[in-house]
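FAQ: What does the model actually see?

It sees only this:
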Amino acid sequence: MAISFVAAGAVVTGANPTVAVPAGYAEKDLLVIVTTGTATPTTPAGWTSRGAQGLGVFLTIFYKFASGTESSVTLTVAGATTKAVMLAYNGVSAADTITAFGTATGTSVATAALSTTYVNEYVISVFAGNTAAATWTAPASTTTRVNSSPTATVNGLLIVDEAKAASGAGTARTATISSSHTLAAVGFSIIPSGRYWRGGTGTWTTTTTNWSFSSGGLGGAPAPTANDPVFFDQAATYTVTLTGALTCFGMTVSAGTVTFSSTGTIANSGSMSLVAGTVWSATGTVTFNSTSTGRTVTTNGVTINGFITFDGVGGAWSLGSTLTTGVTLITTLTNGSLNLNGFDLSTGSFSSSNTNTRSIAFGTNNIVINQTTASAIVLNIATATGFTWTGTTGGFTSTAAVVKTFVFGTTGGTAANAPNLSFTLSGTAVQTLTTGSWFNNLSFGTTAFNPGTTALA
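And it is asked to produce this:
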């Protein structure tokens, strides 16, 4: 996707300014702080220093990708001449190149020539001037985002940007000012987000010829980062090998027959949508780690043959179809909220034993436990502190007629937060409810069970 400017916050001044986050920004937007003054600020926690120089005019750049909850940042600097502002850009995957800082004394200053790595990068140029009244004129072929003239007490700041259609060729930009000043300039580029698999067999992390910035576009884009939605939309049959630790900001398979293989793990901070016929033979863990609400998981009948974990503080996921894993695998809820949304979650075992805030909305649907390994703990919510559930007749259901153990709430479990548990198959295998466990509603059918010394709610 193309990079676009979102907004700039208010320009602030002073020795230790509080810089406001621009209105309208969203999770995964790139936030950029630019400061000028007589000192280099301390890098704020969670931010990356993009570059700083102190020759003539101090100029500093920090960046981070937004979590969606930021409001402001207070900078620690020295010198009352400081001027600072924050900007937001949408559709950014990563920062790329930065020029050497340029300095000049006079009425103009230029960034060094900037050679970008990929097509459609976005170039941001920053110019600063020391105290004394004057007026900036922006470089040609750029869009001005901040134009704050210097005064007798604070430095001036000019920020412009431009999209660059081709990679490689150098771009130098010159700004002018109405009277002679000590000036500084720097340019840096950012890479577009979004990765499209062009078809063909390859490895997610290393085969860049398979990745493009656009559907059916030229290859050579870098492997996805945690800021990149990924798309598989080519009508072909191919295999994508998953190796190592992989990241993305949502995954959509909308065409073709795609096989995901090997043992790589994926951390997905967005949603997932698979077209029927996709093959997920990869055995690594798929972790949904969004810290935002509104995420969906729609597999359309595709069995995930890897472990599934939901782990995002404040994250919320809804099923868009039945979600199925292999019968020996574990689905884990570590943080956040899971809404079955009218569909079952069919898995080998289920675990959510911690004190984090987490919840399940069952409605009339179930988390179906299919573990076929005898003597296994197939429902493990031993620590139920922080766990809540809602629903009517839905809950946990066990199907396989082998010896299994179920535990809920040996720590923090009460009648108030105990879910339903039912057994849908008859058999002679003993089902054990661990001592100290609670369940809201138990249905055994003709299944044998061992209550131990548990008091059943």
